[in-house]
Design brief:
The chain is α/β, with parallel strands linked by helices and 340 residues long. The chain contains eleven helices and eleven strands. The strands form three sheets. The chain has a six-stranded parallel sheet with strand order 3-2-1-4-5-6, with helices on both faces. A three-stranded antiparallel sheet has the order 9-10-11. The protein has a two-stranded antiparallel ribbon with strand order 7-8. A hairpin with a 6-residue loop joins strand 7 and strand 8. The chain starts with a helix and ends with a helix. Bound molecules: 1,4-dihydronicotinamide adenine dinucleotide. Its EC number is 1.1.1.37.
Length: 340
């Protein structure tokens, strides 16, 4: 709870001082896919961060204008642009955090898995460059299907001999952001206080909000649980349908990704109190990758929080079992692709 409030506060003003001195603009962040629907507002939000010294924007086209535009904001970070594969290595050298929203988004009627054929190849080639140029960086994967693109990234990093399980993150923050919003609305709670852990994966029924673990503690009828769970799972599709062919969530996604970047930077800066839900390599269940709350520190994932899965309701336990086959298949599909 505290960390998400801190992350939000940091985005709009300055980070709360909780005992770490010398928080200053000193981190380099790269966004790959920076001219896209997510990339542009994400660039803006990262430009507002007091912790960033360099914002490096990469895309295969149209990134010069985005960088020129953002560079006029009078915040500390310097904005740099990189276009096309020939400039990718210089974009990545020395960065602390790499965020990857490159790829195609959904159109009405599509599942996230329908994006696999295009986005798997994009993520593979970008991760190869990350492995060669900034293997120590935190890697944030936004490109869908996240359930498969993160295992692809892991395999590529392994092939390159630089896989650090603690520094590869699938960005599932938007599921938490949505869950917090919908629960606060339904229960008339103050938004800033609400924190719902969301576990599993990032597609359809693999998105499992643990409503029983909502903080502050709040009770739901069976009907409310069913309705809120479904709404959180289908929230992305709600946006895809409302945009009617013009893409998927970009603004709320940028907000969520910026929160995750800010949390990562605070962790790098030594904040001892950073927790986020994220899709990572995990031993929490029998699946090799699983989203859950994790504690993030200077070296990446410090610990995976298991207590959220203890004492869950029967509804949640059944949903957890039900999501496993789908998540397992998505993981295997990613691994298989990486070995082709
Ligand atoms: P978009 O089409 O507006 O932007 C994608 C950008 O990626 C474009 O600027 C394009 O030029 C760039 N790109 C394509 N190939 C590239 C390459 N090889 N290297 C670098 N850049 C490349 O799409 P949008 O809306 O920004 O979505 C991006 C991705 O994020 C999609 O896969 C979408 O499904 C995913 N997404 C993930 C969410 C999550 O919660 N993790 C939520 C919403 C979207």
């Amino acid at each position: 709870t505290i960390s998400s409030v801190g992350a939000q506060a940091a985005l709009v003003s300055k980070p709360r001082n909780r005992g770490i001195s010398g928080l200053k603009a000193s981190y380099k962040v790269a966004v790959l896919g920076a001219a896209g629907g997510i990339g542009q507002p994400l660039g803006l939000l990262i430009k507002m961060s007091p912790l960033v010294s360099e914002l490096r924007l990469y895309d295969i086209a149209n990134v010069k204008g985005v960088a020129a535009d953002l560079s006029h904001c009078n915040t500390p970070s310097q904005v740099m642009d990189f276009t096309g594969p020939a400039e990718l290595a210089s974009c990545l050298k020395g960065v602390d955090v790499v965020v990857i929203p490159a790829g195609v988004p959904r159109k009405p009627g599509m599942t996230r898995d329908d994006l696999f054929n295009i986005n798997a190849g994009i993520v593979k080639s970008l991760i190869e460059a990350v492995a060669d140029n900034c293997p120590e960086a935190f890697i944030h994967i936004i490109s869908n299907p996240v359930n498969s693109t993160v295992p692809i990234a892991a395999e590529i990093l392994k092939q390159k001999g630089v896989y650090n399980t603690k520094k590869l993150f699938g960005v599932s923050t938007l599921d938490v952001v949505r869950a917090n919003t919908f629960v606060a609305q339904k229960k008339g709670l103050k938004l800033i206080d609400v924190d719902v852990p969301v576990v599993g994966g990032h597609a359809g029924i693999t998105i499992l909000p643990l409503l029983s673990k909502t903080r502050p503690s709040v009770t739901f009828t069976d009907e409310e649980t069913e309705q809120l769970t479904k709404r959180i799972q289908n929230a992305g599709t709600e946006v895809v349908e409302a945009k009617a062919g013009a893409g998927s969530a970009t603004l709320s996604m940028a907000y969520a990704a910026a929160r995750f970047v800010e949390s990562s930077l605070r962790a790098l800066a030594g904040d001892p109190d950073v927790y986020e839900c994220t899709y990572v390599q995990s031993e929490l269940t029998e699946l090799p990758f699983f989203a859950s709350r994790v504690k993030i520190g200077k070296n990446g994932v410090e610990s995976i929080i298991s207590s959220d899965l203890e004492g869950i309701t029967e509804y949640e336990a059944n949903a957890l079992e039900a999501l496993k086959p789908e998540l397992k298949a998505s993981i295997e599909k990613g691994i298989e692709f990486a070995h082709k």
